[in-house]
Design a protein that fits this description.
alpha/beta; 6 helices; 6 strands; 18% strand; binds zinc ion
């Protein structure tokens, strides 16, 4: 396999217009290209939108962009957990291995922040690390942690350590949670049909 694939789902169109989606994809490619190359994927990274349920190789990553008023982690995986800020990754043991669900709340963020949030969730996902493991200490912008920082802003950049850690782990299998896209499609259909309980 010559490319490393990162799949994005955006059932509710929070990455629209298309220019914003392309901006997010290009920024994520900028983050993942050096990681993929370092990990032996000679042709770098491909960032691919997924329009429907899709069987994803366990080596690859998937991030779901969601509206601010619906969480697949809460409503599909039934995990209340901490309130979702910019993004969240659920890691759950299923049949003896970890299964990952990464989501990013999309509204109100520009393309730069959306790409950084998505990459941050990919770090939780691929490195199999909880919040306290990936970013111990207070929830602040910590420049030393780069994109692993608990809070991200326009000054946050990917560090050499971020690249090295992700490259070292990139081929480690992490099962991406199945069935999330069909769940989101059903909720979008309910919302469009005027169901007042579409997100409950
Ligand atoms: Zn985090």
């Amino acid at each position: 396999m010559a490319t490393y694939n990162v799949f994005l789902s955006d059932v509710f169109g929070v990455l629209q217009p298309a220019s914003k989606l392309i901006d997010v994809m290009n920024r994520l490619k900028g983050f993942f290209d050096p990681i993929a190359t370092q990990a032996g994927f000679a042709d770098g990274a491909l960032i691919l939108p997924v329009p429907a349920e899709f069987a994803i190789d366990d080596r690859f990553l998937e991030v779901h962009f969601i509206p601010d008023d619906l969480s697949a982690i809460e409503k599909f995986a039934n995990d209340q957990g901490a309130p979702l800020l910019g993004g969240r990754t659920l890691i759950r043991a299923v049949n003896g291995s970890s299964q990952m669900l990464s989501e990013v709340r999309g509204l109100g963020h520009n393309a730069e922040m959306l790409a950084k949030l998505a990459f941050h969730e990919c770090m939780h996902n691929k490195l199999n690390r909880s919040g306290s493991q990936l970013h111990p200490g207070p929830s602040i912008v910590n420049p030393a942690l780069g994109l692993a920082s608990a809070e991200l802003d326009q000054t946050t950049v990917m560090t050499v350590a971020n690249t090295a850690e992700m490259a070292a782990a990139l081929s480690t299998p992490r099962k991406q949670w199945p069935g999330v896209v069909p769940f989101l499609v059903q909720r979008r259909l309910r919302k469009e049909a005027g169901d007042p309980f579409w997100n409950t």
